[in-house]
Amino acid sequence: MLARALRKPVPDTEPAGASMPEPAAGPKRCGFVAIVGKPNVGKSTLLNALVGQKISITSRKAQTTRHRITGVRTVGATQFVFVDTPGFQTRHGNALNRSLNKAVLGAVSDVDVIVFVVEAGHFNLADAKVLALLPAGIPVILVANKLDMVHRRGELAPWLRSMQERHPFAEYVPMSAKNAKDIQRFYAIVEKYLPEQDWMYDPDELTDRSERFMAAEMVREKLFRLTGDELPYTSTVVIDRFEEEGKLRRIAATIVVERESHKGMVIGEKGEKLKRIGTEARQELEKLWDGKVFLELWVKVRSGWADDEARVRSFGYE
């Protein structure tokens, strides 16, 4: 059941690829598209470009995405239901990472097509471990992302030939998630793998995630962006209160860290870092919801929470 799902944004706020011309109507198609790959290959950026609105948070810190995020986009007669996944975790075997890996495996087990995202021209052991997890019998499209970062396009040809030897990919798509034409081309490629059937969502819905969830994610994004690599990725955000009064939303949230020293990093000198996290998150949420937001933030220490199965579940992880 959708919980106050996000709706299509107005055209002048849409990112690249969002305002593409709608193709001619035909038989209705609808299906699930899993977006998978190792951490930090651009999965969330790709999802946001495909949906036409920011619904999945991004930062340079690995393991930013921790939940399966469902993004919906209806183009002409076809409804694409995209599932963004956490990057598969191979370094640490704590309860949090086991939860993240479970989300990845769950996402790819029952979809119509899998989009395997790698950086164009690169493939390492972490990529190989994700590729080895993909189930047989489901078509896999290789997306060579961040094409805009490749300076010599001619070098991609031998790399693509080497990728053909690694897996029987259904399609090979060099692209940049920031390029509107690439996004438009991507829809046409994926469409033929989706079954002819009725849509699952209203045509203007963009995600099945609730506003409460989006609030926690937006705070977590600003937390990671503003603390950089100083703060361990195990920090998380819990919504304590979410109230609506018309177009006004009152939100109280707690940033959970594992050590007292981490708490100091988040609060900053005279509380300036925490204030900036709150301000930037509030501004992003007001833009997202087109309404006023009052946001209160607190910081608490919960030692060892990322390796406590019960606490990981209580913080909303699967």
UniProtKB/TrEMBL annotation:
- Record Pfam families: KH_2, MMR_HSR1
Looking at the record, which segments are called Disordered?
Answer: 1-24
Named from the GO MF annotations, one term is: ribosomal small subunit binding
Start and end residues of each KH type-2 domain: 219-303
Residue intervals of the Era-type G domain: 29-196
Question: Region (G1) spans which residues?
Answer: 37-44
- Positions of the region G5? 175-177
Q: Name one GO cellular component term.
A: cytosol
- Give the span(s) annotated as G3: 84-87
Q: Which GO terms describe its biological process?
A: ribosomal small subunit assembly
Locate the region G4.
Answer: 145-148
Residue positions binding GTP? 37-44, 84-88, 145-148
* Chain segments carrying region G2: 63-67
Regarding protein family, the annotation reads: Belongs to the TRAFAC class TrmE-Era-EngA-EngB-Septin-like GTPase superfamily. Era GTPase family.
Q: What does this protein do?
A: An essential GTPase that binds both GDP and GTP, with rapid nucleotide exchange. Plays a role in 16S rRNA processing and 30S ribosomal subunit biogenesis and possibly also in cell cycle regulation and energy metabolism.
- What is the protein named? GTPase Era
User: What organism does this protein naturally occur in?
Assistant: Tepidicella xavieri
